[in-house]
Amino acid sequence: MLLQILLTLWRRGKPCSRRAVMSTGCLILSLILGMTSGCGKHEATPGVTSAYSGFVCAACGAKFYVSGPVSGESCPQCKRTEVQPVLAFVCATDGHTTIDVRRSRLIPCEQCKAQTTSFRDPTEGELQAWGAVQKPKADVAGK
Ligand SMILES: [Zn+2]
Ligand SMILES: [Zn+2]
After folding, report:
1. How confident is the model at residue 41 (pLDDT cuts 50, 70, 90)?
2. Which helix (DSSP H) or strand (DSSP E) does residue 76 occupy?
3. Measured between alpha carbons, how far is residue 96 from residues 43, 110, 125, 129, 141 in Å?
4. Three-class secondary structure of residue 75 per DSSP
5. 3-12 burial string, b = 16+ CB within 10 Å, else e?
6. How far from chain centre, in Å, is Cα 91?
7. Which domain of life is it from (predicted)?
8. Are 119 and 88 in contact (CB under 8 A)?
9. Tens-digit pLDDT profile for residues 83-122
10. What is the mean pLDDT of residues 113-141?
């Protein structure tokens, strides 16, 4: 069906629009491939835009998160700027995720004390379990 439309467009098209059809076809194909390869995965791929940004305030200890990325963070509780972004450190031994501040090395699992093997952006459920509360972006974003 989709292929037929593309073929029709291809036959009718001038050379320049043929290129457009080609790129559309490629885009659709890569989308399909992306969907099928993404099916088996449970976790979000690190590096893609995170759904949630979690933070802990170094001054007052407040744990909070916002939906989507945010820059120039300040604490919604004490209004200071000593806030640190947090990550989910994943333990391969028991599958437990430890939420902690972003750092240059991996940390031990809070559950079994084994060294965690990877990290990624935390999910909303993980942030809530950790004790973070969702804040409006306006309360966190810097001026
Ligand atoms: Zn604070
Ligand atoms: Zn563990």
Report:
1. very low
2. none
3. 13, 8, 13, 12, 30
4. coil
5. eeeeeeeeee
6. 18
7. Bacteria
8. yes
9. 999 999 999 999 999 999 999 999 999 999 999 999 999 9
10. 96
Residue labelled with tokens 């467009």: 9
* Residue 66, beta-bridge partner list: 53
Token pair 């965690």: residue:
116
pTM, entire model: 0.64
CA of 132 to the centre of ligand 2 (A): 21
The amino acid at residue 124 is E
Which ligand is in closest contact with the Cα of 82? 1
Q: How many angstroms is it from 129 CA to the middle of ligand 2?
A: 16
Reduce the DSSP state of residue 134 to 3 states and report it. Answer: strand
Which residues touch 125 (CB under 8 Å, ≥6 apart)?
none
Other C-beta atoms lying within 10 Å of the C-beta of residue 18: 14
Query: Which residue is it, tokens 């599958």?
Result: 95
Confirm if 76 and 60 have CB atoms less than 8 A apart.
no
pLDDT tens-digit readout, 54-83: 999 999 999 999 999 888 789 999 999 999
The CA 71 to ligand 2 mean position distance, Å, reads 31
Distance 109 CA to ligand 2 centre (A): 5
